Every structure is written in C-alpha cells, then in structure tokens.
What does this fold into?
Amino acid sequence: MKKSKLLMFLLTVLAGCGGGVESGRDLPNAVVSCTVDGTAVKDDGSVSGLDPSGVRVELEFSSPIDFSLLDRGNIVLSGGDYTCSLSGNNTLILDVTGLEHFGNYKLSVLSGRMLGVNIPFGFSCRLLTAYDPSDKFPRIPREELLDLVQEKTFAYFWDYAHPVSGLARERLGSGETVTAGGSGFGLMAILVGIERGFISREDGYAHLLKAADFLTDKAERFHGAFPHWMDGATGAAKPFSTYDNGADLVETAFLMEGLLTCRQYFSEAAEAPLREKITDLWEAVEWDWFLNGTNQLRWHWSPEYGWKMNMGITGWNEALTVYVLAAASPTHPIGKEAYDDGWARNGEIRNGKSFYGITLPLGSDYGGPLFFAHYSFMGLDPRKLCDAYASYWEQNTAHARINHAYCSANPRHRYGYSSDCWGLTASDLPSGYGASSPANDKGTIAPTAALASMPYTPEESLAAMETFYYTYGDRLWGDYGFRDAFSLENHWFASSYIAIDQGPIVVMAENYRSGLVWDTFMKDPDVRAGLTALGFSF
It folds into this structure.
C-alpha cells in the first residue's frame, strides 16, 4: 500500500473509532499484504514469470472478513478466472486459472462495501505469466544458426544502408541520419559479408568506394574529425545534443577503425582508388589538435561552442582505440605521455578486485556495460595485446565472464536472466536508452552483449544465441537479426535495430570464427607503429 493511502487509512480508522460502538460496525478495512505464489507484492506492483496453469493470490485484510458476503464484482481480474476461499478469518485466497503464456493481467480489489466491511481504498497488482519455453523455430546445427545470425545482421548494413552515402543509418527508422561510429562497424561487417559469401567482393568494393567518396566530398569535417551523426544525403552534421554539433573524436576513431581495415583488406592493384581515399581521410584527422594544449584528448569540439563540453577521453571505457589511432597517425600523432596521463591516469585505471571469483584487471567494479569489451576490439586484437597496465585478453575475458556470472546468479531476481539468457550493455530500454551493467541493472537483456562477447565466452555466447533464437525468436528475431533488447519482467521487446549494436554481432562473431577483422586491422603498418609507440606488445 502506498504511504499516502496508508496515512489516509489510519486517519479513517481513527475517525471511525471516534464515532462510538454503533459506527464501529462499519470500521474501514484494507488489504495490508498480498502474496502471489509466495512472492510479496505491493499495491500497483507486479510479479513476473508466473506459471499460467495456475496462480495463487493471498490477500490479507486488516481485520476479520465475512466470506459469505463476498462480492465478486468488487474483485476484478482482466482475463482468466478465479475461485475464492478463506484462510483464517482475514485472508482471502484466489486461485487463478485460464491464463496464457506471457500474459499481463490486472487484479483489482475495488473500494466499497464487501466481505462485511468497508474498504475505503482499493488495491491492485499485475500478474505477468511466464514466456512459452517451447522452440519457436526448427532446430538447425549451431554453425548454420551462426551463419544465419551473421547474414541477417549484416543485412542491416547492406540492405538498410543509406542509399546516397552507403553509410549506416543510426537506427531503424532514423531516416536520413547516419552514424559515424556505427558506419565504421558496418564497413567491417561488409568485409565479413564478402568473406562469408553474402555479397561479392566487387559489390562490396563498389559500396565502400561510394561511402569513401561521400566521406571525402560531402561529409562535414572539423579539423579532419567527423560528427557523431550526419545527414546521409548531404553530409551536414546533425547535432547529437546542444553542444555536440561538431567533431566527435571517439566516433571518428570507430569510423577510422573500419576504414583502415578496408584499406588493408582491399590490397589488389585495381582497388588502389579506395586505398588512396581512405589514406587521405585518415591523414586529415588532426588528433594532436584535440589535446587542446593538455595531456588528454578531448571527445568533442563544436564550431559554435568550441570546447564547452570539455569531456576528456579517459579510461577505462570503450575508447582505447582513440589513443592507439592518435598515436598511429603519420601526420598528427600524440605522444605516449598523453596515453599514460590522459587515458591510463598513470595506472589509476587498474582495478584488480575479484567478482564472482574472477579478477578484473581494469575499470569500474563488475566491468561496466559490455560494449567496453567490443567497440575498440572490433579491430584491435586483444589475444596477445599487453601494455604496462593489463593483458587485454585477460581484461575482456574477465569482463564478459563477470557479466555472465552476474546474470546467472541473478541477485536482483530479474525474470528471464539465466546462464543461457544474459548480457548487459548499452541498448534501448522500456523507458528509453541507457547503459546497463551489473552495477546498473535495468532488467533488460541486449543480444549484442552476449553475442559480441563470443571470442571471450564462446560456449556461453552460443548458448545465449540459441536461447534468443529458439525461445524468444517469435518476438526477438526479425528482418535484420535480433532486435535490440528485451525485458521479460516488463513484458517488453524492442522493435528497434541500432547500428552500434548490430555491427559488433557480425564482426566479433567473425573474429571468434576466423579472426578475419583482427588479423586484417592489425596488419596495418600505421596501427602497428602506434601500438609500438605506446609501449604495447602484440
């Protein structure tokens, strides 16, 4: 019962007591507790995962009730049916039947006279039944399912690419808005599409050349850096927020990550025009200018507001590749001191604590959202990557394993979480968009979290893929693979696809299968020079 209702109830009781014995016959009553299959639920609350074959609701009233005066019209269930019985002298038992899987039913006790008492304030709760656990699609070999997942997800960057620029739309339904970082991921996904036979090399090359032409001739740049969002037809910057209407260095790095991988991949003589355009775009980024006279790279710059956002790029998060590429630049490099001071904070990025028996080398407790282990490592190969602060294979594997262990243990009792249904990262949520993690659990699973962790947790990720497809595929699977996210306890499945979530699924699955993108990106001589300059072994 809400506090305001409880206060009003107590005041009503006191007023009734002041009326003498006669008025005592009509003392107010209320539901003081409710359990649904043994789980306590508050007024306006809900219980998820209920067995639709039968649910028991126990309503405890504040004083004795007369079961012979039950008025079923004052106990309303939006679907299904119920029978009633009395337990003791003040608890009403409802045995609810006739429910369906994944149903959302409201149970209401209305105010008024019933059961021989006056109920001044009603009570309601929602009964949310379990998802049908049966397979929604025929079983196929795991490798075939992985092929299918990659191909359908790849289609987001091929079939749904912006027709003018060839770049990736920010999300399904975003119209003309394309995304710099998501396009970088999409460029790498196109290479996977070629290698897997989804498209021909010739078609892939032509598409990428169109994108490079657009980035060269139309896209608005600021000291060589691209904005977070652009108009896919005109190239004009589109504000991500009021002050974020110019350069976004992190998004630029993700785009360059994709472009440099393409430069290395298309190595034939006839493919030189694409390589040359990519080199010009790459060498035009003024990485050192974004230090702004400090020892730390800045995330944003606006032509109207300058450095007003003043957000430093500091670890540990998704942006390691920004410093690697900035050090790798043959024209505008930064020095190692910016990496040590600005990114690593002279070692303060270290963690070293244990979570679920797993030691986490870097970052915040429990590792944060899983995209930290994906975005920079679409191209950067973590398998042998080490520096003074960490082994990045140990870091990313620990991060993914902790995320999986948290969802398996499910300490907050989120409906649907399990060892085969896991993955917390940034995604759409029932309430909007946000970054989920064990320390900020929103009750929402994003398929990209588990699937893009496939190199680090192969068996756990593949088991999640099968659960997402076979168990939840009737609502989660669509034209471009798995939809962005779902929350079973909120009876919510996203209708959206988002470029920065789709890209890692294709690319990281391929890195697990063949190492294609890792091997290609890490052959780039500029990238290797940048890693060496920062003191990495690889």
